[in-house]
Design brief:
Elements (H helix, E strand, L loop, with lengths): L1 H26 L6 E5 L2 E5 L16 E5 L7 E2 L12 E3 L7 E2 L13 E3 L19 E3 L5 E3 L1 H8 L2 E2 L9 E4 L9 H6 L4 H48 L3 H14 L1
Parallel strand pairs: 2-3, 3-5, 4-6, 5-7, 7-8, 8-10, 9-11
Antiparallel strand pairs: 1-2
Length: 256
């Protein structure tokens, strides 16, 4: 009898533990969000809540986090580090301008979908998306197309449905502004070459400037010394000579 009842008691304990865990998650739900259980997965819905930052007290078992249509401007380092089960993250339609290099640390292994579309992002550090395996949407942001963005995109798995909506708002070469980034890169353009050329030109201009300053200084030094020498020579010429002094002495002797 006891052996037969033991599996039932174990099953009841596991069920009760799951209920407590779910209740704890709901209880830990941020006041500005709505937390729900969907097919056994914790979904945190914080859409259109006028949020200006990512809530810090999110349930640790969050699998889907919806933060779209708010006023978030910044994704700080370790923003989601406690959410080890996070699979889907929607940050679209916010006012995001900056993404810290450690913004997604802690979720790189679990995250499957990341939506950053319709924000104000111009550039991101290369480290920001390091090791992310998620399908990422970056469309409708005012991207500045240059070497760093090229290196970032090379490592990402972009959403194929929105990849052509990742547009160069500005670029190191103005002729590429307004064009899809992938289209430009597929045509063989390498923004990193422009970066190196720009750096080389800057170094050349700097070196030329220093060289010009040295030449000007040398010319000034020579001319200044020439002027001093001329004045010294004129001074020497103005002094009475030895012969003149001797003649004057003889004249005085004769008179005496």
């Amino acid at each position: 009898m006891q052996d037969a009842a033991r599996p039932r008691m174990l099953g009841f304990a596991l069920l009760w533990g799951a209920i407590l865990l779910h209740n704890a998650s709901v209880a830990a739900c941020p006041s500005s969000c709505h937390c729900m259980d969907k097919n056994g997965l914790t979904v945190v819905q914080c859409m259109s809540r006028n949020l200006e930052r990512i809530p810090p007290d999110l349930p640790r078992d969050t699998v889907v986090l919806l933060l779209a249509a708010n006023h978030i401007t910044h994704i700080p380092n370790h923003a989601f580090r406690e959410l080890h089960y996070l699979q889907e993250l929607d940050l679209s339609n916010n006012d995001i301008e900056t993404v810290d290099m450690g913004a997604f640390l802690g979720v790189s292994d679990s995250l499957l979908v990341l939506d950053l579309s319709n924000n104000h992002i111009q550039s991101v550090p290369k480290e920001a998306f390091a090791r992310l395996r998620a399908k990422i949407s970056l469309s409708n942001n005012p991207w500045h197309c240059e070497c760093t963005l090229q290196e970032v995109l090379r490592e990402l798995r972009l959403d194929p449905e929105t990849v052509n909506e990742v547009i160069c708002h500005t670029a190191v070469q103005e002729e590429y502004a307004g064009k899809p980034v992938i289209q430009v890169l597929d045509s063989g353009i390498n923004f990193c070459n422009f970066h190196h050329k720009t750096t080389d030109v800057a170094m050349f201009v700097t070196m030329f400037g220093w060289f010009t300053m040295v030449i000007v200084y040398v010319i000034y030094y020579v001319r200044h010394n020439q002027e001093d020498a001329r004045r010294h020579l004129e001074y020497l010429k103005s002094l009475p000579s030895n012969s003149q002094i001797s003649k004057d002495f003889d004249t005085i002797s004769t008179v005496l």
